[in-house]
Amino acid sequence: MKNTSNQTYKELAIPHFKEVFDIIDEVLTELSIPYYLVGVSAIALELLKNGIKPARGTKDIDFAVMISSVKQFDKVVDELERYGFNKVKAPWTLYHSDFRIAIDLLPFGEVEEKDTVNFNRRYSDLHVLGFREVLENAIEVPIEEKFAMIPPLHGMIVLKLIAWSDRPEERDNDLSDILMIIKLYHRLELEWQDIMDHHFDLIPESREIDWLFISARVLGRKSAQILRKSDKLLTRIVHLLNANTLDVKNSAIAIEWIKSNDWSMSYAVKLLEEFKIGIDETLYKSNKELK
User: How many other C-beta atoms can be found within 10 angstroms of the C-beta atom of residue 123?
Assistant: First the structure.
């Protein structure tokens, strides 16, 4: 489908994104494999459509790929090797020396269940919790002549919370990306209109508005729509949020957030609490409606 958007790959600040994306799209489309972009490039695409250029570039592009078996995953890798990609240490990472760019193919779907033994043995360091649930909410973003599937902003927060909690010592950028989404959320045209239309109850009448708190609460409400699809995913996120809000002085997330902001610990924790309250009230409302 032809896209008339004026967004360009160059504005993503990701060298050779077009070449890489075109190859991935061609290979996975030919093999009838659903996929979507995740990570910083997905956030950049969502913000770019609102006229906000990426704050940071990347030489890594991440794709969540719905795979039915380890054999099918190997087929994808074989096809990409024909286009000049080469395997590196991690079995899900490929590198193209001409483009000087790495891609992560993060397999999820039936491969997690049908090939549990082989999958766990070969990809023991790979964590894909939430990918399947987020795919159901993926949105289409136009860019040049193509369309890319990406998670909604609240889906990105869910995936980044999981990724950070798996390797907190290696993934500081996940927390800064989450905070960036919260900070920019109310400035995005469609999200602003959604707040006015469906979350107006959060806007106080008699005191100064803190848009970060409102944005975090709305993002929590929307994240609940994904979390309720999986008890395991919900439990993981709720446990993480509790661990970072109940003990204010030792909240790892709040500690990271105040490094680049003139905030108190209590303010940073309150921001996270608003996100959690949004989840809680949406789940409570859903359970109440079922009774």
Answer: 19
Rg (alpha carbons) of the chain, rounded to whole number:
19
The distance from CA 235 to its chain's CA centroid, rounded to whole angstroms, is 18
**Mean per-residue pLDDT, 262-285:** 95
Question: What domains appear along the chain, each with residue ranges and CATH number?
Answer: 10-151 (3.30.460), 172-290 (no CATH)
Q: Give me the sign of the Cα torsion angle 67, 68, 73, 79.
A: negative
Contacts of 177 (CB under 8 A, 6+ apart): 40, 43, 156, 160
> In angstroms, rounded to a whole number, what is the distance separating the alpha carbons of residues 115 and 133?
19
Distance CA 93, CA 102 (A): 7
Residue (of 74, 148, 73, 61) closest to 103 by Cα position: 61
Q: What is the side-by-side strand order in the sheet with 93-96?
A: 35-38, 60-66, 101-108, 93-96, 85-87
Residue 168 has pLDDT above 90, yes or no: no
CA distance 31 to 78: 12
Q: Are 64 and 106 in contact (CB under 8 A)?
A: yes
CA neighbor of 223 nearest in space, from 291, 274, 149: 274
Distance separating the N- and C-terminal Cα atoms of the chain: 44
| Amino acid (one-letter) located at 167 | R
Residues 264, 270: Cα–Cα separation, whole Å = 10
The pLDDT, as a whole number, for residue 3 is 43
Residue keyed to tokens 């082989």: 118
3-state DSSP call for residue 3? coil
Mean pLDDT of 123-143: 79
Exposure class string for 1-24: b at 16+ Cβ within 10 A, else e: eeeeeebebebbbbbebbbbbebb
Residue 291 CA, distance from chain mean position: 32
Q: How far is CA 190 from the centre of its chain?
A: 18
The amino acid at residue 249 is K
Report the pLDDT value the prediction gives residue 77, as an integer from 0 to 100.
94
